[in-house]
Amino acid sequence: MEADLPETTDKFSEGWEEHDIDGKISGTIDFDALMTTTGLTADGLIDKIIDREDILALFYSENMTNLFLAKTKLKSHKVEVPGEQPLALSGSLQINGKPYFVSGNIMPSTFYTNNYTSFSWDNEDRLGTVEASQTSGSAYARARRVSSITTNDVILFVGFLSLTSGEAPSVQLLNSVGSSISAKEQLVEGANLIELTATGSDGEFQIELSNTAATEFYIYNTMAFKL
Predict the structure, then answer these.
(1) Which of 20, 52, 194, 200 could make an SS bond with 181 (beta carbons 3.0 to 4.6 A apart)?
(2) Residue 126: phi, psi to the nearest 5?
(3) Which pTM does this prediction carry?
């Protein structure tokens, strides 16, 4: 990562170069191998460049206690097959927006659902997957977190949305009795790093996924963190 620091040296700098303006921050991630949780082939990765889609970059410690998260775009991609060796992937990811260094995934272990035709939540690998469908009308699924929340607390919702058909789901925070305590944000296809700011306090809170029309979707790498 690097910061653009425009020079602000003037006649009062006494010969020292000064940089008093904080410019833009950018970053790249170079890789020599790549694992994808959505089963992308080499052609699929190249399509990410052509279609200019976001990729969720996720690096974590062995026990999942510390994570680096960022939306990225695939800047370059190289496929090599030297002799009879296994296929090798390498390239560079351009960080797209604000990255996060986080710890302590607070995503609850259970969802309670209402009106989804089908809904499943698998968090066995600590990178949860939501699979849901609804033929018509409104539906929601709520995961209760038994810990306090205070006004202006920020919860980071993380997930990679694969929308098969219909409406993309939305996410928001609810208090213990089901009243909204944050803005409702609709997920976009691909990588989502959504900050939900609490507008109220309670001894516990809920994370709600909802739809108002027919849908079928998957959310991979579903996590939540208190910033």
Answers:
(1) 200
(2) 65, 5
(3) 0.79
